[in-house]
Amino acid sequence: MKSAPHLLPFPWGIFRPGVLGSTPRNYSTSPSAVQTLTLNQPISNNPLYNFLPETQNANNLVALVCSSLKLKDGAFWEYLRQQGSFCRFTGDDLSRILLRCQSDSYAALAFFTWVRNNLALKPNAQNFCIMIHILVWSKNYKEAMKILLELVQLKGTGTGNVSERFNVYESLILSTNDCNWDLAVLDMLIKAYLRKGMVKESFQTFRKIVRAGFVPSIVTINCLLNGLSRMDFGGNVGRYCKEGRLKMRYICITSCLEERVEADAVSYNTLIYGYCKEGMMQEARSVLFAMIGRGIAPDNFTCWTLVKGYQNLDRMISALNLVLELTRFGVVISRDMYCYLILALCKENRPFAAKSLLEQMSLNGYIPSEEMYNELIDSLCRGKFVMRH
Predict the structure, then answer these.
(1) Residue 236 burial by CB count (10 A; 0-12/13-18/19+): exposed, middle or buried?
(2) DSSP 340
(3) CB 69 within 8 A of CB 103
(4) Neighbouring-strand partners of residue 155
(5) Burial level of 141, CB count in 10 A (0-12/13-18/19+)?
(6) What gap in Å lies between CA 78 and CA 114, rounded to an integer?
(7) At what angle do helices 125-137 and 184-195 cross, to 10 degrees?
(8) Long-range contacts of 103-112 (CB under 8 A, 24+ apart)
């Protein structure tokens, strides 16, 4: 993924009116919504708190917990809990503690986990985002992905419909104002959606990331293409849905090219496979020659995918012509591909086409097998193309 500017946590162009206002767009206005933190803000302004012992003063709680984290003293949290110090503990307090300890991701994660397991407080979206940023920044990707998988399924207030899910992308971006972050988190967000089967959400996030001026890694894009190819619209849905799915895949490729990030053979092959699977062979050919035009040589998988696509439409002659055309572009056709095509043409009673391909195979240095000759002879005999002497 492209590197971000050194001084700014994110390009300001993505923060449109309404996103950085007092009420973020697409967010709940409940306390769980992402807010700007004041790290040293006291829990209560009541002066009577100052007469309490240090461990019972709620205003000292954040400092006490942070000190215990530096000393690796997790048992002290349980002592504070028994003293009632956490009775007014909020999500903002949790965020302040995480931010103060972001240089030690293991300590931050330990306290985050302890809060979830021992307090009645449920971490909000902001807490999740800060914890994820801390883990990704420290290269602890495994633990970050675990929390990110939970976050993508976190609901907002209300009935819990899909439309009321937290906007995870914007939550993560807004949280970058408070803590260190790494662009890898955007790659991970796309993959998290895919792992949860939320392919549409992953595609929408991909487009937002690209519009913001970043392009995910080619590995992530290939994962997204693969996810789009596996989308199930159901047997009774019309062709337009399938074409829409393919359009999404095509957008992924063109977005890469527009941002001067070259798609690789896997990206093109995934798109070709999708078109062939739906019988859209003309579109598959267009992608193939765009691939060749970009200097990416089709591999054995590309050839097999196209040949199978034509075969499913009973168009073996078109498959033959494509293979011959590819040889003129310098594409190496495997011996197995020649064998498969020759046998398929013989079974379709096209012996002369099979004979022509067999000759081409010999010119390319392959030795035809005995099975090929037998199938070719049988096909000639079935067509009564046998000369008697």
Answers:
(1) exposed
(2) H
(3) no
(4) 165
(5) middle
(6) 9
(7) 120
(8) 104/69, 104/70, 105/134, 105/135, 105/137, 105/138, 105/140, 106/140, 107/69, 107/70, 107/72, 108/69, 108/134, 109/134, 109/135, 109/140, 109/143, 110/69, 110/74, 111/65, 111/69, 111/74, 111/77
Q: Over range 272-300, report the average pLDDT.
A: 86
- Residue 20 structure tokens: 């950085």
Structural domain boundaries in the chain: 1-181, 183-249, 334-389
Of 293, 299, 304, give the one whose Cα is nearest residue 262. Answer: 293
- Point out the least confidently predicted range of 19-28, 30-39, 302-311: 19-28
- Which residue shows structure tokens 């890469």? 256
Residue percentage of the chain with pLDDT more than 90: 30
- Say how many Å lie between the first and final Cα of the chain, rounded: 71
Q: Which neighbouring-strand residues pair with 165?
A: 155
Taking only the tens place, the pLDDT of each residue in 208-243 is 888 887 878 878 877 887 787 666 544 333 333 344
250-279: pLDDT as tens digits: 566 555 544 555 567 777 887 788 888 888
Which value, in Å, is the radius of gyration of the alpha carbons in the chain? 30
DSSP string, 183-251: THHHHHHHHHHHHTT-HHHHHHHHHHHHHTT----HHHHHHHHHHHHT----TTS-HHHHHHHHHHHHH
- CA 90, distance to chain mean position in Å, is 33
Residue labelled with tokens 């985050």: 112
For residues 319 and 300, the answer to whether their CB atoms sit within 8 Å is no
Q: What is the tally of helices (H) and strands (E) in the chain?
A: 18, 0
Number of C-beta neighbours around residue 207 at 10 A: 13
Q: What are phi and psi of 155, to 5 degrees?
A: -90, 155
**CB atoms < 10 A from the CB of 341, how many?**
24
* SS3 track for 19-49: CCCCCCCCCCCCCCCCCCCCCCCCCCCCHHH
Residue 40 pLDDT greater than 60, yes or no: no
CA 173 to chain centre: 17
Residue 159 has pLDDT above 50, yes or no: no
Question: The whole model's pTM is what?
Answer: 0.60
